[in-house]
Design goal:
The complex is a heterodimer. By secondary structure, chain A is mainly α. Chain A is built from 15 helices and four strands. Chain B is an alpha/beta fold. Chain B has a domain of 156 residues: 3-Layer(aba) Sandwich (Rossmann fold). The chains are: A mainly alpha, B alpha/beta.
Amino acid sequence: MRILALLKRIIHQMVRDKRALAMMMVAPLLILTLLHYLLSSNTVDPRLGVTGVDETLVSQLKDKDIIVKQYDAQANLKQVIKDDDLDGFLQFDGDHINLTLINEQPSAAKALQMQVTQAIAAENAKEQAAKITTFIQTIQSKLQGAPIKLDQTKAPAISTKFIYGNEDTTFFDQLSPILVGFFVFFFVFLISGIALLRERTTGTLDRLLATPIQRRDIVFGYLSGYGLFAIIQTLIVVFYAVKVLDIMLVGSLWNVIIINLCLALVALSLGILLSAFANSEFQMMQFIPIAIIPQVFFAGIFPVEGMPEWMQVIAKCMPMYYGGDALVSVMYKGLGLSDIGIDLLVLLGFALVFIVLNVIALKKYRKI
Amino acid sequence: MSASISIKNVSKSFGKKVVLNNISLSVEPGQIYGLIGPSGSGKTTLVKLIVGMDRPSEGLVHVLDTPVPNLNLLQEIGYMAQADALYTDLTAEENLAFFASLFKLSKKVQKERIAYAADLVNLTDHLKKRVQDYSGGMKRRLSLAVALIQDPQVLVLDEPTVGIDPELRQSIWAEIQRLKMTGKTILVTTHVMDEAEKCDRLAMVRDGEIITSGSPQELKEHYGITSLEEVFLKAGGEKK
């Protein structure tokens, strides 16, 4: 069995190359851990300076987790905001309200703006309600008939339900399934691509092809050899993400593993294929911005539905689009195998096409 | 029995560039056949056509009466490439075992062949060493051992002694002679003239054409000179 011979050799080589092994197994965990803490860390409470604002509004703002600092009227707002490290400044000047935002981080500034506006609106509504009550009471005191009954309107309580996730789900919960898949994809691509590239550049591929081995045996040998390490890597990454980082996993762990294995197979066959078009490790690296990075954009981190038509077409040509969709479906939405069947089929289709192309590409080295 | 290697009117061009032009030669069983010529003369291309890595643009190549390329034929061709194509992160033994397992050999025969080939090139004591710790000469010898691993009838050695010190060159040639004694057909390329003396027959290649061929003695007599180097220059001059 020539495939077995290749498999055995690849295992020998991989086990000797401790660094590559470490990169494949440990690096994804490191990045995943960093991102986990980065994205699920708490946001800092915004600091707001106020002047001329009445007490009830201040307490409302404080209820919204805004740190409020009282000031006398300030001439140079910019300086005060900078000096006191404020995120914004709210100024009441008679009927006129001024809100100055530092806008260092647009998203934080928008959130603060919204909270302040909401607080002011709520305050206004309260005042309005109080005025109406007084007005009605005044009328009633003048009319001596049956008293008009005034129902106090209460703000209806909104109870929010979530179909997927819950009120505590963060961006990371939605992102992490995609990241798990992407790391498997990326590292398998890199290692397998460079491994076959080395075989080409050192001439061992030529030598290999001077034996009665079939071209497809080489491709399948490589797939099984690096596939084995891809499986180990997938298991480590998935278990680490779910058991150690406690990433949200609603669906079945087995489905996650199946999806990642399909992704690894695609990455493996793509890596081997692209290495045919590279003459050095450096040229292999040049494929990363072209073949790998765009995959992230279309994996579901940004909603594909909102993209222009032509970009949606590109998205559908990206293996990670299907991998990301399947992973989010299982890990975040808790869907089952039947819901991700099409994604898996498409991934396997990609792998099949790449494998066939690989067998053909080896013709460059031997005609039969 | 007919020729081990027979090449008839073979031409090869890559795009517009003609690398081999109407080459014919035949190598009899048990012969050492030398292809001599400067770098870039098309020797390696010819070797690749014989092994079956590439197809000729025109003409026919037969090895052991079988048309090339043919996968099963590779069982009978031992090929030593110009560059040492070895897995440097593996030990010599693992290299030999890997290549051995690509051929149709039983486990027992594989073991015997590994021991035999390693012994032939004097590497038995270094089998457990990783190839990256080998010297250049040891790598060359290991490459030769790899070419011998399946006990092929025909050996195709592309510049087996390039970049090797004189002493080692002697020992590699001694091995080639020994292989000849066991009845192997050997095709060697070289650009070193004194190695040409050791061949039974020679073909001098220049710019993709055979400028002259014959036994070293015949060539010298034909041109009336004593050194093959001069034969090469003279034959090349006549051609022009």
